[in-house]
Amino acid sequence: MEKLVIEGGKPLSGAIRIHGAKNAALPILAASIMAEGTITIENVPDLSDIHVMLGILRALGCRAELVGDNVTVSTNAVHQFHIPESLMSQMRSSIFLMGPLLSRLGRVELYQPGGCAIGERKIDLHLQGLAALGAHIEENGSQIVCTANELHGAEIVLDYPSVGATENIMMAAATARGMTTITNAAREPEIQDLQNFLNAMGARIIGAGTDTITIEGVAELIPCTYRIIPDRIVAGTLMIAAAVTRGNVTLEKVCPAHLTSAIHVLKRAGVQITINGDIMNVCALSRPKSVERIVTSPYPSFPTDLQSQIMVLLSLADGVSIVKETVFEGRFKHVDELSRMGADIRVDLNSAYIRGVPRLYGATVEATDLRAGAALVIAGLAAQGSTVIEQIHHIDRGYDRIELMLASLGAGIHRTTPVPTE
Ligand code: EPZ
After folding, report:
1. How do the residues of the chain divide into helix, strand and coil, expressed in percent and rounded to 5?
2. Among 12-21, 58-67, 411-420, which stretch is predicted with the lowest mean pLDDT?
3. Which CATH class is domain 3-16+288-416?
4. Pairing relation of β-strands 212-216 and 248-252?
5. Which of 163, 371, 397 to mutate to test the pocket of ligand 1 (most atoms within 8 A of CB)?
6. Ligand 1 lining (C-beta closer than 6 Å)
7. How confident is the model at residue 422 (pLDDT cuts 50, 70, 90)?
8. Binding of phosphoenolpyruvate: at which residues (predicted)?
9. Is the CATH code 3.40.50.150 the one for domain 22-227?
10. DSSP per residue over 84-108, as a string?
11. Which terminus of the chain, N or C, has fewer Cβ atoms within 10 Å?
């Protein structure tokens, strides 16, 4: 298995361009099948999750390919409504195909995506929303069959501002007959990106980014070309890496407005951040300060996807900090591995109590999920000595060749590929 090897203690410096957002590209690629023709999506990151989604689109009958950072999808021959369990199990985001397939074919067959390292990951809000729009849903064991002769508008109130459920409902409602409102909608920037993509294809949606989204169904959608927003979680990850290595890094093609809560926390920790349009400079000349309390919750609050990464900074801070995780029930898997590197963290239910230590020490550690893996990379950059990270396929799901990004900023990091035995 491939591994990452990191020689810690080198301050990051230099400039780097932030690649396109995984969590915007995935629903937008799914939505592309809602129009017949050729759709071009720009600024798509080269990630394993993206390649899995392209594989699913091909399985449904599309031609889909990533050339550079542009994806071209030809959707004329979409005919398949069954999503193979093998592909579902590879990536939970296959769930984003429900709305588009119901819209395009009136039927979708897939499987419960199942839980993962960070939690149960239920889909009840997705199913409730699609049923409100007129879909008939049958669950046979792990298989789910949704059918709809005609989708119609509805007034939907989400019990929880689920990102995926908001997106699935938006997509299904875009060509439903009549008006749909989603109340208590998720407000993430990726939802605004999906709205803008759907509207570029002729949909009539307003309100994304607020807690109430209104969709006026249209008869059909038409192909378009669209550019994905920058990845705010990749940007936040690199900001924290710059901070823990006491570096000076400039992020380019970033959207600072998408990172308000993370910027606020880093400034409270003593990190200097200056913003000039889509350029952000991050500079840390001294040991970070502790932050009394960070609570993850839906956007625009502090994002759960930066929780494990900020915990590394707090592990090196001068003082005690508390991190409370309210979005996923199992998102502290990185704590054991950080403790093996010398961090002093105590977990009690969904809160972690972090007592800062002067330094971390290199060790051989294992990535358990995407963002926990990113946190271990950050810890390795700051640690004294050498760190080896295993199971790095988790990291490749959300970061486009993370070792090249970081090496370009002066990090001592490389990927080892096992020599095939005879
Ligand atoms: C999206 O996941 C992101 N993934 C996640 O990023 C992100 O952490 C999450 O939103 C929250 O911001 C993509 O966009 C591909 P949710 P999603 O539905 O849509 C519960 C990363 O690292 N819930 O907002 O699955 C659920 O169990 C990934 O890039 C229900 O109970 O998130 C969870 O506790 C990780 N029923 C909470 O809501 C449902 O029907 C948040 O889930 C749906 C969700």
Report:
1. 35, 30, 35
2. 411-420
3. alpha beta
4. unpaired
5. 163
6. 23, 26, 93, 119-126, 160, 162-165, 186, 304-305, 327-328, 370-371, 398
7. low
8. 22-23
9. no
10. -HHHHHH-GGGGGGHHHHHHHHSEE
11. C
